[in-house]
Structures are given as C-alpha cells and as structure tokens.
Amino acid sequence: MPELSAQIDDAAAVVASRWPDTPRAGLILGTGLSEMASHIESRITLPYDALPHFPQATAMSHEGQLSCGMLSGVPVIAMEGRFHLYEGYTARQITLPVRVMKALGADLLIVSNASGGVHPGYKQGDIVVIDDHINLLGDNPLFGINDDSLGPRFPDMSAPYDRGLIEQALEISRRENFVAHRGVYAAMTGPNYETRAEYRFLRRIGADVVGMSTVPEVIAAIHTGLSVLALSTVANMCLPDAPATTQGEDVVKVARMAEPKLRAIVMGVLAQETT
C-alpha cells in the first residue's frame, strides 16, 4: 500500500493547514446523525471535495464534510457523512478518512450508524453499543500488499470494540435513563434492504442488527492502532414473521429522533477522556 501512505499524507496536510490542533478522537456520523456536528465548538468545516483523494458522499442525509473543533473539551475531527460500498467505492477508499484521523494524532474512533433490528427484543429508536461484528461485505480495506508502516499484515480482531468504552457507554445510558443494548452488528453491501430469508439467516448466525457500513472503518482503525467505540441506532425492525416495508426516509427520521441519546453517550465518553 505505498500509494495509500502518500494519499494519507496529502489529505492530512490539507486538514492540518486549516486546523492546527491535534485531534484526540475521530467521529464518523452516520445516517441521520449529522446534527451532532452542530455541537462542536470553534468548528472549522472542510468539504470532502477540498480534500485530496477523498471520495464524495452521495448517501441520503450525509453532508459530505469534515468538522474540526472541540466537543466536551476534547479536540475532535468528525465526518459528517461516510462512504459505502454501494456507492461504488472500495473498502480501501472508504477507510481513507480513518487513516487520516490517525495520522493527525487521534487515538480513539467513535463510529455511529443507523441499522435494522433483527433481535426481536429491540425497538425502533433503541441504541446498540456494538460488541462485535460479522463482515458479509465481500471486501476488506486490508486487501493487497500490506504497508507495515500503517499496521500489521494480520491484525487481531478478537476484540475490535474497546471493552472499557463499551462499559462507559452502557453506564451513561443507565444514568440518562434510556435503553442501550450490547449487540452484534452484521454488515451487508446494500443498497437494497434485506429479504425475510436474510433476516432469518442473520439472526441464526448471531446478528442483532444489520447495516451497510461501519465494519470497513473498524477494521482499518484496528489495523492502524485506534481504540474503537461503535454505536448503532435501531431505525427499523427486521422481523421476518412480521415484515414491514422499509423506506430510506423513515430510517433517517428515526435516526434523527434518537440522535440526542447517541449524542449523550458520545459526549459523556469524550468528557471522561479529559479526566
């Protein structure tokens, strides 16, 4: 991946020229969750098309810019909108921003997404603190020759989601009195939603929620040495014996309504980073 290192350096240099601080954390704000960026203080925004080698965000509700500034007293760099395989990008392209965050100095990545609930005990609007994942994407950001300066050839994925951060997130939800589960996220390519047979399959293999993102970014984060916390908003229920039609607009609406709960966790976790 020699060309990847050059791309990381190019993009990081542009960000650093506009925002001189060193981020402690990187944030990926998924479907319906860009409102959190408005809480970043002293915010500087950088459109993706101003950053070399960055893809362009085309998904619904994804703004397509970086927001840099302070959140809960911590310098952060936030993606307002992410990239997906279904947009025609490779997993390596999708994860370039994660590597740029690391190059700029971040040591923590907080990822958010909207998902479908395949666990029958979940409800729309619940938050799931991701404990593990299942990669059904058929792609991986580590395909190809490994650049040892970026990370190991065979990174361990036995615990990709930081257990201490998981416990912090669950404690915050209890303190704030809203439901948060600990569950497994399955990633599928989309852009279509899943069939009833796929819902049954996903539940049988251990998935609690399903979505179209997150796993590539987490793999790249672990490869490059970042600690990871991932949060999913259950935007629709995926129950094969009680199927309902899923519309993208409805997913965005539910995710936006649940955003204050997700924001409470993110800001609470970041606040503990200052202690």
Please explain how this structure is put together.
- This protein is of the alpha/beta class and 275 residues long.
- The protein has a single domain, classed as 3-Layer(aba) Sandwich (Rossmann fold).
- Helix content is 32%, strand content 24%.
- The protein has 7 helices and 9 strands.
- It has a 5-stranded mixed β-barrel with strand order 5-8-7-6-9.
- Helix 1 crosses helix 3 and helix 4 crosses helix 7.
- The chain starts with a helix and ends with a helix.
Which tags fit this structure?
Rossmann fold, alpha/beta, 9 strands
Q: How many structural domains in the coordinates?
A: 1
Strand-and-helix sequence, N→C?
HEEEEHHEEHEHEHEH
Secondary structure: helix percent: 25-40%
Please summarize the sheet with the most strands.
Answer: 5 strands, mixed, barrel
Helix and strand composition category: alpha/beta
Shape: globular
Question: Measured on Cα atoms, how large is the radius of gyration?
Answer: 17 Å
Question: What is the CATH superfamily label?
Answer: Nucleoside phosphorylase domain
Distance between the termini: 37 Å
User: What is the number of E strands?
Assistant: 9
Mean pLDDT rating: 92
Given this structure, which CATH class is correct? Alpha Beta
Enumerate how many helices there are, as a single number: 7
Unreliable stretches (pLDDT < 50, length at least 5) are none
Strand adjacency order, main sheet: 5-8-7-6-9
CATH topology: Rossmann fold
Strand content: 15-25%
CATH architecture: 3-Layer(aba) Sandwich
